[in-house]
Specification:
- This protein has about 100 residues and is α+β, with helices and mostly antiparallel strands.
- Helices cover about 25% and strands about 25% of the residues.
- Strands 1-2-3 form a three-stranded antiparallel sheet, with no helix packed on it.
- The longest helix is centred in the first third of the chain and has 24 residues, at about 10-35.
- It is elongated, with a radius of gyration of 29 Å.
- The model has no long low-confidence stretch (mean pLDDT about 80).
Amino acid sequence: MRLLDEDESNNPALSVVNLVDVFLVLIAALLIAIAQNPMNPFLEENVTVIKNAGQPDMEMIIKNGETIETYKSSGEIGSGQGVKAGVAYKMADGSIVYIPEKTE
């Protein structure tokens, strides 16, 4: 029973336990702040996030309601069959104008 009779100021383990408690409280507060951050894109119902846009390792994350889908780029150029649908022009102000082709 020697430990119970010791003075608290002489036991250095008590101060370490107090530091651990303080850090646990700080970590919990930071996690709550991150989860409640209004800039968190995943708080919205439907979100699309593009990581590393235009790079070979581009990744697209799409959240629709409760489901989250991830698409990773393979770095290959897509191909397929189709027809020309129109022409797009980039204007001087940066806007893009699309002109559909007439189908007969």
